[in-house]
Amino acid sequence: MTGNNKIIASWESPSNIALVKYWGKKGPQIPANPSISFTLDNALTKTNIEAIKVDGQNQISIDFYFENEKNDSFEIKIKAFLEKVVSQFSWLRQYHLQIHSSNTFPHSSGIASSASAFSALSLCLCDLHQQITESTINNFFELASNWSRIGSGSASRSVYGGYNLWGKTPLIQNSSDEFAVNIDNQINSVFKNLKDTILIIEKGKKSVSSTKGHALLKEHPFASLRYQLANENIGLLLNILKNGEIQEFIALVEREALMLHSLMMTSPTPFILMKPNTIAVLEKIWDFRNQTGLNLLFTLDAGANVHLINTDEHNEQVQNFVKNELVGYCQNGLYFCNAVGSGPKKTKNA
After folding, report:
1. Among 34, 74, 281, 314, which Cα is nearest to 190's?
2. 163 with 255, same domain?
3. Is pLDDT at 123 greater than 60 in this prediction?
């Protein structure tokens, strides 16, 4: 390796939680239906990239470190991602990338880390592109969202704060299957300060990956109905978020979560990602809400863990509920508190 030209970019980017779910593709990383999520504030990936010019190099070259340790399996995934986008940014073949990444949340805890990881990586790459080409990307976050999508579909929604929509719909101007758009200007204040407690029911690798789950939906007997309902729910949720209808929000978001897992259980090759403690927690949440009348609800990602969402005014009571009745269902008592976040930040070079 020769050459002294070294350029550095550092970003931190959050995960997000989908309210209307992205499940199923109609092409490479193109969603079969739109999705809406909100960005989390504490579940972050921090990424630092040193790009070192190498004379005569004409191939992608990287070293990847996670939590300061060389990680070959992640390195393979990132190199494959870079191969997919190198046609747009040929400078990638002339630089060696030394990538350091870390999470603010426990690794393999079931908190959608691909969204935060690929959005942080893509933001760094866009930053490097501006520095190397000495140009300005006018649509910087849109491009970062597009790059993020190629690595992980849900990552496209993590490059903005607040509420975001990914997927083409006539209901939102400039919406696209290739990048997410921010819809915060359409959100009632009721939903701006939601809290999200992530209850870690089970850590570690899922029995069926999201990639395989998406693929199984292609032959699913309910696929076309799911896409129809998802599009209808996008319209319903947009109105709910605009009008501040919390009870309707609770009903729709929980229905979306359960529909996601019902699709898994009725796939051509059925699979179950929920665990007995997942079911127990959902029933506890329903019982507590019925007893207290508080504005709280659950949603689920493609895994066993539970997102407990509540409005800000009830947060003290909800946190007491978590500590007194739910923590015993969490693996090693692990849970993680979040709120609606403001989005990624450029950080000082490490």
Report:
1. 314
2. no
3. yes
Number of structural domains in the chain: 2
CA angle 99, 9, 45 (to 5 degrees): 60
78: domain CATH number is 3.30.230.10
Number of CB atoms found within 10 A of residue 236's CB: 17
Based on the fold, state whether residues 299 and 326 are members of the same structural domain.
yes
- Sign (positive or negative) of CA dihedral 101, 107, 111, 114: positive
Give the whole-angstrom CA distance, residue 99 versus residue 293: 48
Q: Alpha-carbon Rg of the chain, whole angstroms?
A: 20
Q: Between the CA of residue 116 and those of 112, 247, 265, 330, what are the distances in Å? A: 7, 30, 27, 23
Domain that holds residue 204: 194-339
Does residue 345 belong to any structural domain of this protein?
no
Quick: pLDDT tens for 187-233. 999 999 999 999 999 987 788 888 889 999 999 999 999 999 999 99
Q: Is 18 helix (H, G, I), strand (E, B) or coil?
A: strand
User: Which residue in 94, 74, 77, 76 sits closest to 86, CA to CA?
Assistant: 94
Contact 37, 30 (CB under 8 A): no
The answer to whether residue 70 is domain-embedded is yes
| Residue-level pLDDT at 110 | 61
DSSP-assigned states of every residue in 203-243? -S--SS-HHHHHHHGGG-TTHHHHHHHHHHHHHHHHHHHHH
In a domain, 95, yes or no: yes
- pLDDT, tens digit, 9 for 90 and up, residues 281-315: 999 999 999 999 999 999 999 999 999 999 999 99
Nearest partner of 114 among 158, 146, 161, 79, judged by Cα = 158
Closest alpha carbon to 343 in 179, 149, 115, 128: 115
Q: How far apart are CA 117 and CA 103, in angstroms?
A: 8
